[in-house]
Amino acid sequence: MEEVPLSDMENFSYTDFTLQWHITHRCNLRCKHCYQEDYSAFEDPDKINAVLEQYCDLLKAYSCKGRLNITGGEPLTHPYLFELLRLAWSKGIKTGVLTNGTLIGEWEARKLKACHVDYVQVSLDGMEKTHDSIRGKGSFEKAVNGIYALKSKGIFTSISFTAQNQNYRELKKLSSFCREIGADKLWFDRVIIPAEEDTQKLVLSAESFQKLCRTASRLNKRGRVFCGRALQFIPCRDKLIYHCSAGENLLIVLANGDVMPCRRIPLVIGNADKNDLLTLHRDSPVMQELRAVGIPQGCRECQYAEWCRGGSKCVAYAKTGRFDIPDPDCMLLSKQK
């Protein structure tokens, strides 16, 4: 492993480093808001082992703890999933699985528990009719059955709600339902699609997002929705203020080996089959540009500037083609205009 110069190491003081790993692009669903164009890429076990070693080298170089989130496609379609989870656990890396939940039964839940997974995230995009219209008929019932199976094994189960024009008004109903079925956490984020590609008009306007955040703030006060993503803290006055980690302690690896700073910023910085993760993270011009953004010009007078640092870079990039400007959905910016 190449040594990192001390001068560079001083710039990277992380307590943990997250790798979001799309080990397969194969999926049993075709969701309306899916970012994928390819559904065939599939990481073979030999390459998986090599990438995991690269990740361990990066963690060692930066002297930080690992957080590995395994997803897809649908990660439960990959036969090496459980072996990868066990291997990561043996190396002291915390693991999570991000899934649509439809392929999880009692056997899969038992295997996940045996692999010491820290949490499983299941996507629910509204109540049954809405969810099925987004993800496919019957997918809601299967996902809920998956949640029940996970909870029966004592696995921390988080529910992810991807807010878009079709479903954002259902957050309140979904929060009640998640409490009924015993989910441990419900959180939400915006669907991110480049403006020119949003032919279905799924992306929320700034006004709709801000309305959603106000709804979420009332639910947050009752402990029913976690408001820990970009800008959500403003109406609920949460002490947890989100800081976008793109360019910092986050990397994405796709099933074909491509490496990105964030899954929702469609910029490939290299390939793990050709360059190791440490070198790509440290030396990629895109990563360096992301780290250099700091606090965008329009945010520097804001009381939250040092903590929020401009909101979500991927939203700014999707809506404007730039990631060095403030998140355009910010309600505080709206008040300034």
Polypeptide structure, described:
Helix 3 links the parallel strand 2 and strand 3. Helix content is 38%, strand content 14%. The radius of gyration is 19 Å and the shape is globular. The chain has a nine-stranded mixed beta sheet.
Q: Helix share of residues?
A: 25-40%
What composes the largest sheet? Answer: 9 strands, mixed
Give the helix/strand class: alpha/beta
Q: Largest beta sheet: what is the strand line-up?
A: 6-5-4-3-2-1-7-8-9
Q: From N to C, what is the helix and strand string?
A: HEHEHEHEHHEHEHHEEEHHHHH
Rg, rounded, reads 19 Å
Put simply, the count of helices is 14
How many strands appear in the DSSP assignment? 9
What integer is the average pLDDT?
Answer: 92
Low-confidence stretches: 1-10
Compute the separation of the termini in Å. 51 Å
Keywords summarizing the entry:
single chain; 337 residues; alpha/beta; disordered N terminus
Q: Summary?
A:
The protein is of the alpha/beta class.
Topology of this protein?
Elements: H1 6-9, E1 16-22, H2 45-62, E2 65-71, H3 81-90, E3 94-99, H4 106-114, E4 119-123, H5 128-135, H6 139-152, E5 157-163, H7 171-181, E6 185-190, H8 206-221, H9 233-236, E7 250-253, E8 258-260, E9 270-271, H10 277-283, H11 285-292, H12 305-308, H13 313-320, H14 331-336
Parallel strand pairs: 1-2, 1-7, 2-3, 3-4, 4-5, 5-6
Antiparallel strand pairs: 7-8, 8-9
